[in-house]
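Write out this protein's structure.
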Amino acid sequence: MRRKAHGQVRRVRARGFSLVEALAAATLLAAAMMALNMTSISLARGTKTADSYSAATALATEQLEIVRAMPLGAAGHTPGSYASANNPLTAGGLAGGKFTRTWTVSAKDTPANGLKTVTVTVSWTDTTTHTMQLAGYVRCSTVPCP
């Protein structure tokens, strides 16, 4: 405070920020930046998981279509469990990736006369183990299945 002539007191206006205000602002900014960083990490993980599910779906669809395209009565329609020769697979179906593809052909006449169920399972591990399944039907060469 300054004294004016005749005993009047005039306040001097403070300029700038105090150390406490600057520290509070820096703390708030750091907390906001950490939250933004955690959000971006979470989004990146979610995107990677979604990409893996898309690749697994494509691999399962590919195998189901291969089995369905076989001629009626082909050896690939024999009930049993099978696995890709190139396991583990890449997202493009080549050897050396993180995906494992297996499929099962059901017993004859399951779920109905003249049909067999083919269930394709694709598994992979990133931070956790994931599994997805896709099922479809193939016809038998005769009804009921021989």
